[in-house]
């Protein structure tokens, strides 16, 4: 075996070991490195009230209500598997709206409502001109379709 | 590839190739950026903020592509002992770090109006910042190895660092899939794009333009390192008299 081939095999073995180690580390980090809890995670793992977490998901359509004081909003957050109620007092980001993604920082109160201290709007991967609003990206055909 | 091991033969091709990469790259970039700013419609949700993607996406692609290039050069240096691979690795590092910085900065500027924050420690942003720090480390090691000889290229240890650092590239790519992240998932996949064609097409121009420019910068830096080697060799000969 030539020295060149020895080096090639050594480098490839090292590379495979490295990628394996990286993937193992990444999969072990799966939960720890998550930026936020989805409502389903909250339900299955049981986050105790008062513990500061981030809650992320979609704002349920028709759930967004503004309280009479004008600055408090109540809304439901869902990930398709579970839904939790949340409320926030303050100025909401421009992109915060029903049917759109949100990441809220805060904690659950004893009643099970998420009391957010800060709201971040989460953008999804769809980009389109204004004329196409109301259309949805179809995962199967990879075309834009009217969402009605 | 060993046909180009001779610097004279490499320079004979690299010199005209630099010109042919640089100018078309610059023209494509300017057309793409101009169309992205003035021709394409605004996004339905983000409005005009969306236009930053014509810079942000190519910068991210080149930041990650640059390190992939460093890893390939490292493999060629360590396995095949290709004499130009060590120089290529060192030449890629600075523009790679530069584009990674552009990606981080434009992302931050976009994040403020879109998400409502300049910076969050989510998987995508953190792994991209790690890439930037890896570049800084590689540049420092590369400069140190060039001072100690190594023919103006990176030392074998630096090449190993480049190879090990490549593990971060698939992590960046998958970070939005593996972990809940604030950064949205991939828009452009092998199966199609969820960016509407009306918004997508200038991205192709800037992506190609930036890539050609990146290649031109790498060739220029490789030529500069080779010229520096020549100067040093001549100085040594003169000193010996």
TrEMBL record, chain A:
Report the SUPFAM superfamilies cross-referenced here. Heme chaperone CcmE (SSF82093)
**Main location group:** membrane
What keywords tag this UniProt record? Answer: Cell membrane, Cytochrome c-type biogenesis, Heme, Iron, Membrane, Metal-binding, Signal-anchor, Transmembrane, Transmembrane helix
Cytoplasmic topology: which positions?
Answer: 1-7
Q: What biological process terms from GO does the record include? A: cytochrome complex assembly; protein-heme linkage
Q: Which GO terms describe its cellular component?
A: plasma membrane
Gene Ontology MF terms = heme binding; metal ion binding
A Pfam family annotated for this chain is: CcmE
Keyword Cell membrane set for record: yes
Membrane topology field? Single-pass type II membrane protein
Q: What does this protein do?
A: Heme chaperone required for the biogenesis of c-type cytochromes. Transiently binds heme delivered by CcmC and transfers the heme to apo-cytochromes in a process facilitated by CcmF and CcmH.
Q: What is this protein called?
A: Cytochrome c-type biogenesis protein CcmE
Organism (species): Sphingobium chlorophenolicum
Q: Which gene encodes it?
A: ccmE
Automatic annotation (TrEMBL), chain B:
List the subcellular locations. Answer: Cell inner membrane; Membrane
Q: Which GO terms describe its molecular function?
A: heme binding; heme transmembrane transporter activity
Which keywords does this chain's UniProt record carry?
Answer: Cell inner membrane, Cell membrane, Cytochrome c-type biogenesis, Membrane, Transmembrane, Transmembrane helix, Transport
Does the keyword Oxidoreductase feature in the UniProt annotation? no
Residue intervals of the Cytochrome c assembly protein domain = 36-183
PANTHER family linked: CYTOCHROME B_B6 PROTEIN-RELATED (PTHR30071:SF1), HEME EXPORTER PROTEIN C (PTHR30071)
The protein's name: Heme exporter protein C
Gene that encodes the chain? ccmC
């Amino acid at each position: 075996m030539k020295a060149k081939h020895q080096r090639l095999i050594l480098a490839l073995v090292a590379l495979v070991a490295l990628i394996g180690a990286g993937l193992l580390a990444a999969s072990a980090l799966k939960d720890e490195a998550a930026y936020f809890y989805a409502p389903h995670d909250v339900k299955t793992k049981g986050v105790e009230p008062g513990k500061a977490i981030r809650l992320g998901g979609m704002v349920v359509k028709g759930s967004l209500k503004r309280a009479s004081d004008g600055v408090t909003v109540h809304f439901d957050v869902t990930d398709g598997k579970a839904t939790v109620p949340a409320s926030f007092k303050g100025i909401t980001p421009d992109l915060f709206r029903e049917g759109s993604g949100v990441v809220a920082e805060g904690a659950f109160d004893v009643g099970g409502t998420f009391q957010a201290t800060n709201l971040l709007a989460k953008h999804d991967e769809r980009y389109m001109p204004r004329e196409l609003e109301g259309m949805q990206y179809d995962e199967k055909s990879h075309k834009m379709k009217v969402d009605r | 590839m060993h046909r180009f091991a001779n610097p004279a033969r490499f320079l004979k091709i690299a010199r005209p190739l630099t010109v042919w990469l640089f100018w078309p790259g610059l023209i494509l970039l300017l057309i793409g950026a101009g169309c992205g700013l003035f021709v394409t419609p605004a996004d339905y949700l983000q409005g005009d903020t969306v236009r930053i993607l014509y810079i942000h996406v190519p910068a991210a692609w080149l930041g990650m592509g640059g390190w992939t290039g460093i890893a390939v050069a490292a493999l060629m240096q360590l396995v095949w002992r290709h004499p130009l691979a060590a120089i290529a690795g060192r030449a890629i590092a600075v523009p790679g770090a530069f584009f990674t910085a552009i990606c981080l900065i434009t992302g931050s500027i976009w994040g403020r109006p879109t998400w409502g924050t300049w910076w969050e420690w989510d998987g995508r942003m953190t792994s991209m910042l790690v890439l930037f720090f890896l570049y800084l480390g590689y540049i420092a090691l590369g400069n140190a190895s060039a001072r100690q000889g190594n023919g103006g290229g990176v030392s074998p240890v630096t090449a190993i660092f480049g190879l090990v650092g490549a593990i971060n590239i698939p992590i960046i790519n998958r970070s939005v899939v593996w972990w809940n992240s604030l950064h949205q998932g991939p828009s452009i996949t092998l199966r199609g794009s969820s960016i509407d064609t009306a918004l997508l097409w200038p991205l192709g121009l800037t992506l190609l333009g930036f890539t050609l420019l990146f290649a031109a910068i790498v060739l220029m830096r490789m030529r500069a390192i080779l010229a520096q080697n020549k100067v040093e060799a001549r100085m040594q000969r003169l000193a010996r008299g």
